[in-house]
Fold these 2 entries.
Entry 1:
Amino acid sequence: MRAVVLTLLMAWGCSEPVHEREVEELGPESPGVAEGPLHRAGQPCGTCHGELGPARRAFSLSGTVYHAGSGDEPEPKLTVRVLDTKGAQLRLTTNDAGSFFLPADEYAPAYPLWIKLERGEQTVEMHSAISRETSCAGCHGRVPTPDKVGQVYFEMPGTTAGGVP
Amino acid sequence: MKPTGRVALAALALLSNACSKSEAAVELRAPSRVEFSAVSSVLELRCGGLDCHGGPARSLRVFGVYGLRWDGRDVPGGRDTTPEEVEASYQSLISIDPERLSRVSADAGRGAETWLPLSKGRGREAHEGGTRLVPGSAADQCVLSWLSGKVDFDACASDDFGPEPRAGEDW
């Protein structure tokens, strides 16, 4: 009996209710999009792909870039440049969903990080640094609010560039 | 007296002592609010990002264009930092470790490095955001001068926080 109570207490003690709620609030997979690199575009990848799971692989940096400041059209094949505080640079490419990600076991960021989006000669630079957040969507919501910037986007030449502060 | 009785008596004595008299109000000093605007500009960029002190869940909140907005109609990255946001950041900052801040302020900045926000910002003690105010840097001088009672506006204005690529590499 004592062992059972102890086991229950341990199980209860190890749960992370806040994290579990965050995962739950992401909702189910979108119909027609299989679990994988193209799924859940625009969502905070790090919620599941963090040290608490439930995804198997943790990401140290991840996000989705849209074509414009509003709407769902992704910006694929875009270069996402990363510069860390030690001067190390990385270049990533967005996939067909506009998403990019860096597995935590391949890259441990030296914060603060600076981000720049690039296609040819056109660049859009994020003016503030990333200090700890692993998901773009941790700070960028689909709609701007007093504590969230709008979605990350990259407009084509001839328009006003800039989707990040 | 039984041990349990002694414990109860001691607890009662402690409780009655704690509730019997209120301490006289102590007036604390704080550095200038008027000159804080220059300091705020430094803190907004270095500390006030949405994933740090520009977030609502922090004890120290830095309001402004790069992070948390005071007015519900403003968004990060929108219009420039407002006077209300500078005021809100000031109130938040001076509420951290206020007794030590008061001593530092009364002593023309002496011992400033022990004041919690500066101690953490300099990386002197555990800080998730690491060292954001490198000792001797313009940003550090700006904050130190504010704490000493005479803001070094040149230092505040010359602070340059941005990407630093390695020599020979572009960004």
Entry 2:
Amino acid sequence: MRVSFQLNGRPCTLDLDPIRRLIDVLREDLDLTGTKEGCGEGECGACTVLMDGLPVNSCLVPACQLEGVSILTIEAVADDPRRRRLLESFVEEGAVQCGFCSPGMVLSAMSLLDRCPDPALEDVRRALAGNICRCTGYERIFRAIDRSKGRAP
Amino acid sequence: MTAARVDGWDKITGRARFLDDIHVDGAWIAGVVRAGVPRAHVRSVGFDPSFDWSRVVRITASDLGVDNVVRIIAEDMPILAAAEVSHAAEALCLVAAPDRGMLARAMGAVHADLEPLDAVADLEDALACRTVIRGNDNTLCSCRVSCGDAAGVLASAPIVVEGTYRTGHQEHAYLEPSGVVAIPGGRSIEIVGSLQCPYYVQSALERVLPGLRFRVRQSEIGGAFGGKEDYPSVIALQAALLALKAGRPVRLSLDRHEDMVATTKRHPSRIFHRTAVDRDGAILAMQVDAILDGGAYVTLSPVVLQRAVLHSTGAYRCQHVDVRGRVVATSTPPNGAFRGFGAPQAIFAVERQIDLVARTLGLSPLEVRRRNVLRPGDRMPCGQMLDAPAASEVLERAVAESGYEKLRARKPSGRPARGVGLSLFLHGGGFTGGGEARIGGTAAISLARGRAEVLVSSTEMGQGARTVLPIIAARALGWPPERVSMPLADTSIAPDTGPTVASRTTMVVGRIVEDAARRLESRIREHLASIHSLGASEISIREGVYVDSGGRKLATIDQACESLGPVRQEARYSPPEGHSFDDATMKGDAYLDYAWGADVVEIEVDTETWEVRPIRLTLAHDVGRAVHPVLAAGQMEGGSLQGLGWACMEQIRTARCRYLEDRMSTYIVPTAADAPEFSTVIVESPGRFGPGGAKGLGELPVGGVPPAYASAIEHATGLIAAELPITPEKLFHLGSSTGRRG
Amino acid sequence: MMPCHSPRTVSEAAALLRERPTVIAGGTDLMVAIHQKAIAPASLLDVTRLTEARGIRVDTALDIGAAETFAAIASHPLVLSHAPALAAAASSVGSEQIRSRATIGGNLVTASPSGDSIPPLLALDATTVIAGPGGLRELPLAGFIVGYRLTALDPTEILLRIRIPITSRFQSFAKVGPRRAVACSKVSLAGCAGLSASRFSSVRLAAGAVAPTVILLEETAAVLLHNEPTPDLAERAAAAAEREARPIDDVRSTAQYRRHVLGRLVSRFVRSAR
């Protein structure tokens, strides 16, 4: 089926099998490999992208539901000067170790900060609960978000 | 402040290329048809003729054409099951196809005719020997460490305390599942994969395909924790054989479910302690009986066992020790390396035993630890003398930092019940005994155009090797760290520095790198000395410029390198003077150095639902010298949270030898909402061996949290847990069996 | 390529349903089932674009579109004021990522005994609005879920809306899972109770994950009715709930533990009732 949606701020029209997963559209059809697959079942959050500003597991989104939506992946964030501080904070505070959870984690953090610029730690924990990190213990991810909040992103 | 990790920007922007991000032209996809039955006689593996088998490539044990062996330590494990199936995830048939759809259809057309045999379900079942699958009594390996006369002292001791402690499987749950790609060349094969030890894989390939040349390299690794130490040899062999048969690249990537079902786990344990003490809490003798469940094959069990046995008396001194260890075989996938490698199991047991001693004598857990903690001049049971153990130091730091004594003195009351617990532990860095000497690791530094490359077989898997090793080299060279880099591990460019395991990367590999860098530094000075007719010792480097003793500029780094030309300097591991260990008697210097740790865990318990909430973890870990403090703290916190998960929610039960928890929805790990607050104290008690006194630190943190967590629960509720994980269901059961309600 | 339709109106949907497509809402259950090879749909019907299935409003009841996501429900002012127990349940489902997509309709149609929206809806005496070839019909939630993962929905019907009576009664929701977030309930309890002259004048307690379906604890409610919420009453109600529940041992928990925790949650409900 023909599907038209916004991808990283640009219009995108593709012919897709209705049940094809968004993660496969991104990684295989569009060579956007920044979004990772960790479990395929919506449990780990490594595949998180933003859909109309909200974090979703792209491994659970079928192509037939992309019509008219706006998708944001890590590739757009990487090049966005407004996000530089957030990304730098992650790197400098030790919030990145193996890096596999990082793109998804950043997008979830970004979505939270865009909707709530000064979240309490409890809000941050809730917002990131769907992004498993096995390396850091989360402590430095919280510090990175703390460091980047409340200022010009 | 040390600069941010070198690979951080690529990782945070999603640009870092993990295995499945790497496109390989013309690669087929591989799948493994697995037995599905834990033990069976293989009558036949048949193929549905209605499927067009010419469209794919398939391999069974009968058409392998090469030795059917995955070389790890022993050679008891086959690449594919031949006459007998030994565990349910064992490979029966390998298939490679052009796409996933065809692969699935081909795999569905494979029909194995299996005659089920009696299986050994678990550790207890193995000990009972109703069914024997290995040797006479299901033993895979055993070892013993002893000193003094433990039996004699125990026989006459006034007070003897006994306890049995159990731990279960733990799954690594690295975010990136396992995978490799095999790319055949003329008479060569390249393996790219998410793997910790490229030379292990190379060795396994050479064993089976001796006529070929190999290149094994890592892709960016999304976590490993030991789970990618030996298993990659299995899938690399499987992919390589398919690639050779297909004459094209083959990608074998496991999805999460398959990874959880088939790959290695932490060895379950049952450890019995019998301790003689006096009334004041001094330990007089320790007898330990440790049993580990190794799964169906030997793989790394002998070394896991050695480490468990050598850590089984913990951070305490005792002159009369007898530790017997045994690994038993069960009809489950082989267990393997997992951060800590036998030590966390041993530490849980000994720490709980110390708490039991305290409780029995009416002393505080802290008091008993202080009384028995290892001091300078003490010896470990294997006989190794400790000249400067930092055990006391970390203990007192953790206690002070957390306010443990005040918290522990508080009577738990009200809802939720609060509790605090303490643990003291250690981790021997580097390979056990003569292991480092046997590896004889070699590092190289390659100099060209004013830049240095550190060439080692150590893999970057998140721990920061690609940041830390260049820093060590840069310091020895006197160069700014930006001029030194380290590529992803690749056997075609780096010598064998040994595997990325055993907390050896900073301490042992770092030392070899430092040696190479020092030699290189000398060569540069000698070169400049000969040009300028000076003595080499008159030359030094200051702010990136080589100067003479008067401060006169001789050359910039770029100039010095240009005139020197490209240079490669190697260095090899050499054991410290007098360092030796006898594997047969388990006597001598077991480890190059020990790192020490103490944890304080504060929790809240809802005594109605038995949900436990960890509030704060105070970590005081001695890392010798922190080369990169942020990365060091990351290892401490990340490892501690893995320990916490193992302690409270990570559980694998088996039914008919199959794991019940085999997906991320059922095998649960801590989320951001489950993590406690951390109070992280890096203690630096420099060791003698590592660069600047650095010690191994990657594994130390895992063992500390579980016993401290158990102790905190005991403080809050009076319930004594001797088994991991400590789930609400178990606490409820303990609470109701002691007659205690809500 | 499989046929897939995203009808905007109920009448479009009704026509398409005659072909027995696989219905997809948020996809958070369905896509996992496909990934685990439990099902392989031949055609899809996406119900998330049905205008009649969207929107949250109040008329004579709080009326929630079946296609509304848990993220929307958890933060909607009308839900927070009229059905706070449902808002609490909605915010406890899965993760942010799941809540952004999973729908209340999907949760009801999946009809798992641990579906978190079901206990508050049952406690609040919600009614389902179903669209079928014959038009609309209303069915109380208790009649909608008929068994373990079974509903009264005919394959030609879709769940369109959920209606919740406006009430000022005390209501709450509690859930116990294996970790603090992203957790499938081991036990859940929602309650809605009216008090008059300090005595329970009405009680509805709905328990999840302690039986093949979410169940109303009727015997427990009977223990409470017309009595004052004292600690003693709380314990008698807890005991009644423990007898009334029919939990099992499974991969997530044990029957004994579930029974005990249910009792505790009931006791807490009684002690906190105002």
